[in-house]
Amino acid sequence: MFQMNSSARILQLLLVLVLQLLACRAEFYSSTSGLEQLFRTEIVLLDELQNYVDEITQHAEALQSEIDAIRVEHLSAMDSIGSYLNNPVNAFRLIKRLHSDWETFESSVKGDTSRADYLEAMAELRENLSYPSQDDFVGSAIALTRLQQTYQLDVAELASGMLNGVKYGTAMSWQDCFVLGQHLYALRDYNHTVPWLQQSMQLLGEQSYGEESASLDFMEAVVGYHQQMGDHENALNLVNHVLAIEPEQRRHLDETRTQLEDLITDGVKQGLLHTTARRPGDYHSSREFRMYEQVCRGELAPSPAAQRHLRCRLQRSLFGYAPFKLEELHADPPVVQLHDMVSQRESLFLQNAARPRIQRSTVYNQASSDATAAAFRTSQGASFNYSRYRTTQRLSQHVADLSGLDMDYAENLQIANYGIGGHYEPHWDSFPEHHVYHEDDRHGNRLATAIYYLSDVEAGGGTAFPFLPLLVTPERGSLLFWYNLHPSGDQDYRTKHAACPVLQGSKWIANVWIRERNQDRVRPCDLQRNHLISLRFKNFD
Predict the structure, then answer these.
(1) What three-state secondary structure class fits 123?
(2) Positions of the chain with pLDDT lower than 70, given as ranges
(3) Coil, helix or strand at residue 165
(4) What is the pLDDT of residues 303-349, one digit of tens each?
(5) 3-state secondary structure of 507
(6) What are phi and psi of 364, to 5 degrees?
(7) Fe2OG dioxygenase domain spans which residues (predicted)?
């Protein structure tokens, strides 16, 4: 039987060991780094399945060779079985085959351990490799609908692997679309369930087996989903499709068709789509959230008048380095982007340094004053003291050189990676007025934010400021900078910002948060409060 050569087996065992060491992380969908780990898992599983197929193929080919030889004997005997059997050699061979060869064939089948070996290997791999959890499956399903909604993607295009008119990947099967629709149904996201079930049935109907009874049975079952949701039109379309193919066999659907036609004619609105409404005060229904999505799509942007006085210039380095390439993105509050601040080698170094330590990103919880994971922020991150590497030291020096701020009072550098539809909904980096600081935290509020973009992003993933309104496209090596507080120390509510969902690609950033303490030399506190200009954005809706 087929045996994997020793060097290949050693390589596979090493890969399994590496994946086992990494498998302690409980979540994968929220970063592309985690998804790469799952991809490596599938490589191992694919190799194991290929080994099994190779083994049973060799066994089958050996048996087929025996079958072919016996059939040749039978074909030669067909002209005259009597003459064939009168030959003593032929007679002996027939008896010999039935006496011993067929027992050998049976023993060969009984002794074939390839199936048991494969199942045993798979059981061992399942214990040692990384597999997605239910949370990963739920998260990936929600991410697809988030992309669909934020960027107003057509479901048919999305299922075909098209994102905003560009073909990026393999098309989804009808089964993929159905499982996604079914899961969204279980999550009570009925508005997104409908188009995915509709796409699934359309793809099923296009298959070569789309008109077979088993396929029609499946379509008939999906009619029930649409009926329960109150989606009478799609339910009726499916019923008409099934009846057009098998009118006699499915006469029981005639009554269903009549009922659906009456409901549509009478304009009856019933079912889960109509009884399940968003909760009052749901942020995702707010004007602010719609503005954020419009900024992500590029539909809402600063007016030409607001941009007229913005300039690109060379900014002199305080420390005597080469001047910065500074681009003014917004005047008040000032938002600037500096280009070519981090090299490609440094960006890759920081990504690789973060991968082994990366964990689900958290947010400040007002109720407990602790950091917790949240659905409105899907990314993974790792923190580093600036003194850890020469590269992180340089990042700190760049921000200090640009702003003049004292980086001794900056939080640790946070490197983050965004996965499937990875995003961070609109938020302020500064802490609210009622924020409870830990006893050992005497550095004050977050005065300023700087974001290093460590990768380009093919589509989506921009930094959106809904109130400015401004969208900053990730550009590898660049640095985005703004102040979170007014000179009076009050929150500047205009700086609310968000990470738009990543549509295609991998987004890596490094966050820098600089606290208030000891910054009065560079940013002295105004004697009079000047926060009224931003106060209307505190509770926008």
Answers:
(1) helix
(2) 1-26, 276-280, 364-371
(3) coil
(4) 999 999 999 999 999 888 889 999 999 999 999 999 999 999 999 99
(5) strand
(6) -70, 125
(7) 409-516
Q: How many CB atoms lie within 10 A of CB 465?
A: 23
Q: What region does 152 belong to: left with phi over 0, alpha with psi -120 to 50, or beta?
A: left
Asked whether the bond before 466 is cis by omega within 30 degrees of 0, the reply is no
pLDDT in tens, 276-298: 666 667 899 999 999 999 999 99
End-to-end CA distance of the chain: give it in Å, rounded. 70
pLDDT in tens, 176-228: 999 999 999 999 999 999 999 999 999 999 999 999 999 999 999 999 999 99
**CA-to-CA distance for 75 and 44, rounded, in angstroms?**
46
Burial class (CB in 10 A: 0-12, 13-18, 19+), 334: exposed
Q: What is the DSSP string of 56-89?
A: HHHHHHHHHHHHHHHHHHHHHHSS-HHHHHHSHH
Cα–Cα distance, 462 to 499 (Å, whole number): 6
Beta carbons of 531 and 490 less than 8 angstroms apart: yes
- CA angle centred on 507, ends 502 and 509, rounded to 5°: 130
Quote the CA–CA distance of 511 and 415 in Å, as a whole number.
6
Amino acid identity at 351: Q
Go through 28-60 and write b for each residue having 16 or more CB atoms within 10 A of its CB, e for each that does not: bbbbbbbbebbebbeebbeebeebbeebbeebe
Single pTM value for the model: 0.85
For the record, the structure tokens of 513 come out as 């948060």
Which 3 state secondary structure label does DSSP give 508?
A: strand
- In this structure, are residues 29 and 501 in contact, taking their beta carbons and an 8 Å threshold? no
Q: How far is the C-alpha of 538 from the C-alpha of 426, rounded, in Å?
A: 12
- Any bridge partners for residue 460, and if so which? 502
- Nearest CA to 511 out of 475, 486, 479 is that of 479
Single-letter amino acid code for the residue at 118? Y
Distance CA 344, CA 91 (A): 79
Tell me which residue of 323, 333, 329 sits closest to 309, measured CA to CA: 329
pLDDT of 437: 85
Are 233 and 204 spatial neighbours (Cβ–Cβ below 8 Å)? no
Evaluate whether 422 touches 379 at the Cβ level (below 8 Å): yes
The helix or strand, by DSSP H or E, that contains position 401, with its residue range, turns out to be helix 390-403
Q: Is 537 helix (H, G, I), strand (E, B) or coil?
A: coil
